[in-house]
Design a protein that fits this description.
By secondary structure, this protein is α/β, with parallel strands linked by helices. It has three domains: 176 residues, Spore Coat Polysaccharide Biosynthesis Protein SpsA, Chain A (Alpha-Beta Complex), CATH 3.90.550; 41 residues, no CATH class; 97 residues, Rossmann fold, CATH 3.40.50. Helix content is 35%, strand content 21%. Strands 1, 2, 3, 4, 5, 6, 7, 8 and 9 form a nine-stranded mixed beta sheet that branches. The protein has a six-stranded mixed beta sheet with strand order 11-10-12-13-14-15, covered by helices on one side. Helix 9 runs antiparallel to helix 10.
C-alpha cells in the first residue's frame, strides 16, 4: 500500500463527501486506502457517507475524544508507506497528491510535507507554513507585526512569509489540514500527542520530526481549505483551545518559554473559557449574489434550491462546461463585478480547474461555492443548502 489517507469527521458530511470525491480524482493510479473516524457526529454522517463510499474504512466513535484521538485511531489502521492526515473540509488536487508523493519518494530525509492551501476566495492561506513559536514570535503574531512586515524574517517568522509561496522550501511547522507523513518516520518519533484535544498537535508532531533529524517541507501544490467547517464555529471557543494548547506546547518543549508565558496564557484561557457562549456564532451573509456556472440541469436545480431557502440576490446563470469554456468566471466575456460567490457545477468542471480558476481572482474576494447534480447540495464556506432544507 502506497498511501493511507486518514480523516476525522465531525458533523460535516457534505464537505466530507466533496473531499472524498476530489480524492477519488486526485489519487487515480495510486494504491491507496481511506480511513475515516467519526467523532460522534449527530448530522447523519454515519448513515450517509459509508453508503456512498463503500470502499472506505469507517470507524464510528460514541464520544468525541478530540482531533488527536480520532486521528490516532485512524492511524492505527493505516498500512501505507505514507500517511496523509487530511481535514474533511478540503478539496485536494491531483498535483497535491501525485507531486507530493513523488517529492517524498525522491527525498528520503523529508519526514513530512505540507502544501499550498487556498482560502475560500482563492487567496493564499498563511498557515500553509509556520515557524517554531517563541515568545517573540507570539508577540509578532498577536500584535500583527508578522502581517505588517511579512517579508522581514525578524517579524514574519510565525508564517515564514519571507519565503516564496510558489517555491518548495524547508519549513519548521506544517498544518494538520494536510500533512503527508512518512510512515517510517512516524514509527520512530510517534504520532499525535493526545494531550492536545484541538490545535497545536500538528506543530508538536512537526517539531518532533525536526528534532529527530528529518526535514519538513512546504510544496506549492494547491488544495482548498474551507477552514473552520471541521471545527467549532465559536470564535471564543476556538481561541480558548488555541491558547490552552499553546501553553501545553511550551510546557512540553520549552520549560523557559512555559515559565515566561504561563501567567498571560493561563489568564487568557481562563477569561475565554468564561466568555464561551456569549459571543456571536459565525453566520452566512444575508445578501449573496451568485454567479452560477454549470450544466443546464444544474443551473435549474440551483434556482429551485435558492427559492426554497429564500436566497435572494442578483444571481446570474451561465450554462457551460470545462471543454466549452475552460476559463470559467475568468473569461473576458464575463463580468464578475457585484458578485459575492462563484458557484461551480463540479460535475462539469474538475476540482483541479475550479481551484486554479478561483486563485486567479483572489483579489476580488469572490467566495467559492460548489454543486453537483448527484448530491444536489450547494456547498458554500458557511452553509449547505439542499431540497430538504438540511
Amino acid at each position: 500500500m502506497k498511501l493511507s489517507v486518514i480523516i476525522v469527521n465531525y458533523n460535516v458530511k457534505y464537505y466530507l463527501e466533496q473531499c472524498l470525491l476530489s480524492l477519488e480524482s486526485a489519487a487515480r493510479g495510486v494504491d491507496y486506502e481511506i480511513i475515516i473516524v467519526d467523532n460522534a457526529s449527530t448530522d447523519g454522517s454515519n448513515d450517509y457517507i459509508p453508503t456512498r463510499f463503500p470502499k472506505i474504512k469507517w470507524i464510528a466513535c460514541e464520544e468525541n475524544g478530540g482531533f488527536s484521538h480520532g486521528n490516532t485511531i485512524a492511524y492505527s489502521h493505516a498500512t501505507g508507506e505514507y500517511v496523509l492526515m487530511l481535514n474533511p473540509d478540503t478539496i485536494v488536487t491531483r498535483k497535491a497528491i501525485i507531486d507530493s508523493i513523488e517529492f517524498m519518494d525522491g527525498n528520503p530525509n523529508v519526514g513530512c510535507c505540507g502544501v499550498k492551501m487556498i482560502n475560500r476566495d482563492g487567496s493564499f492561506a498563511m498557515e500553509s507554513r509556520r515557524g517554531i513559536v517563541t515568545p517573540w514570535v507570539s508577540i509578532c503574531k498577536a500584535t500583527g507585526l508578522c502581517r505588517r512586515y511579512p517579508d522581514k524574517k525578524l517579524f514574519g517568522h510565525y508564517y515564514m512569509s519571507y519565503l516564496d509561496k510558489e517555491q518548495a522550501n524547508p519549513i519548521e511547522m506544517t498544518s494538520g489540514a494536510f500533512m503527508l507523513l512518512r510512515k517510517k518516520t512516524l514509527q520512530e518519533v510517534g504520532f499525535l500527542d493526545e494531550q492536545f484535544f484541538m490545535y497545536w498537535e500538528d506543530s508538536d508532531l512537526s517539531y518532533r520530526i525536526l528534532k529527530a533529524g528529518y526535514k519538513n517541507y512546504y510544496l506549492p501544490n494547491p488544495i482548498l481549505h474551507y477552514k473552520g467547517e471541521s471545527s467549532v464555529k465559536s470564535i471564543l471557543r476556538y481561541r480558548y483551545w488555541l491558547y490552552s494548547s499553546l501553553r501545553l506546547f511550551f510546557k512540553k518543549h520549552s520549560p523557559l518559554y512555559y515559565i515566561i508565558s504561563y501567567i498571560p496564557l493561563t489568564f487568557t484561557a481562563w477569561y475565554l473559557k468564561n466568555r464561551i457562549g456569549k459571543d456571536k456564532e459565525k453566520s452566512e451573509e444575508t445578501q449573496s449574489n451568485f454567479l452560477v456556472i454549470g450544466s443546464k440541469q444544474a443551473t435549474e436545480e440551483i434556482k429551485e434550491i435558492f427559492s426554497l431557502h429564500n436566497i435572494k440576490g442578483n444571481h446570474q446563470y451561465i450554462v457551460a462546461d470545462e471543454s466549452s469554456d475552460p476559463y470559467g468566471h475568468t473569461s473576458k466575456e464575463i463580468s464578475i463585478e457585484g458578485f459575492t460567490h462563484i458557484l461551480y457545477d463540479y460535475d462539469n468542471y474538475s476540482f483541479d480547474t475550479i481551484i486554479e480558476l478561483i486563485q486567479k481572482t483572489h483579489s476580488k474576494k469572490l467566495r467559492l461555492a460548489t454543486y453537483s447534480t448527484n448530491s444536489k447540495r450547494i456547498i458554500t464556506d458557511g452553509a449547505v443548502y439542499g431540497y430538504d432544507n438540511k
